[in-house]
Design a protein that fits this description.
heterodimer, A: 174 residues, alpha/beta, Glutaredoxin, five-stranded mixed β-sheet, two-stranded antiparallel sheet, 6 helices, 7 strands, 40% helix, elongated, B: 125 residues, mainly alpha, Helicase, Ruva Protein, domain 3
């Protein structure tokens, strides 16, 4: 039986495209930045919310065993939901220091937010125009980044911290 | 003297307008290649979302600092992954994406060449 070369080529191409489409079905199309775990955070300078003369930088974070960097705003409703977990973390874990970055918010509103719900943060910085958030690969709030003393990202939480994420953070930092 | 001042000012205006329009073109080119992560299939050039606006500010700052287009893409890719740019860089994971169109073009040209030659040959015979 004689099989022409063109038929073999067409058959191979069909198989190849079917394989590519099949592989494509397995890819997760929901974008998140969790793939950046293991990367080092960049150099930054974060001014204190109610005193722009005070600031922290990456050098200050190196002194902590773990640092949880949390982006929040008073206008963000999921931030309210996660706040109780941040308060628990600050009470229960001595290993973790929590840095809050107030994102595109009004100072007064942010201070009222913390007064009303409690302040779990060891330092509250401000990101008025959102540029700091880009340094941390943030694309919406709330988002939290857990880094170790080498400033390596060990966990990234996109969306509010819930009970499951809270337990994971505790487990990772024990 | 007045004429000299007039020419000097005109020259300055000409230089600065040329520079800013060149800068604007460069900015737009970069914006068009950056994906708005919170939008549906839009670049940051097409979007006025909060994320796109912030991203534009960062790109403007980096250009002012004298960073090149490649350096800006490298910086943003390190923060958001390869997904942030519409035109991905060549790597072992996407080499087929880059090579396949050229390979198809070359094979197509070869097939057309062979077919044309065959038809000519048949006509002569």
């Amino acid at each position: 039986m004689k099989i022409s070369i063109s038929k073999i080529i067409i058959f191979s191409l069909v198989i190849f495209f079917l394989f590519v489409f099949w592989q494509g079905l397995k890819i997760n199309n929901n974008y998140d930045t969790k793939g950046l775990i293991g990367n080092r955070i960049s150099n930054f300078q974060l001014n204190k919310i109610n005193n722009s003369n005070q600031y922290i930088s990456e050098e200050d974070l190196k002194k902590n065993t773990y640092t949880l960097i949390n982006f929040f705003a008073s206008w963000c409703s999921p931030c309210r939901k996660e706040h109780k977990y941040l308060l628990s973390l600050s009470n229960e874990s001595k290993q973790i220091k929590i840095i809050g970055i107030n994102f595109k918010d009004k100072k007064n509103n942010a201070m009222n937010f913390l007064k009303e719900l409690g302040n779990p943060y060891d330092f509250v910085g401000e990101d008025l125009d959102g540029k700091i958030s880009i340094l941390f690969g943030i694309y919406g709030i709330p988002e939290s980044i857990l880094v170790d003393s080498d400033l390596i990202v060990i966990k990234k939480i996109v969306g509010p911290i819930d009970q499951v994420q809270y337990n994971k953070i505790l487990k990772l930092t024990q | 003297m007045k004429i000299k001042i007039f020419f000097f000012i005109t020259y300055l205006l000409f230089i600065t307008s040329g520079y800013s329009s060149e800068n604007q073109t460069k900015l737009l080119e970069i914006y068009k290649n950056l994906r708005c992560l919170v939008c549906q299939g839009q670049s940051i050039a097409d979007s006025n979302s909060d994320f796109a606006v912030t991203m534009k500010l960062v790109v403007q700052d980096q250009l002012k600092e004298g960073k090149t287009e490649a350096e800006i893409y490298r910086f943003l890719t390190s923060k958001y992954g390869e997904w942030i740019v519409y035109q991905p860089t060549f790597s072992k994971n996407n080499f087929l994406l880059w090579i396949l169109p050229y390979t198809a073009l070359i094979f197509g040209a070869i097939i057309i060449f062979i077919l044309v030659r065959k038809t000519k040959h048949n006509k002569v015979n």
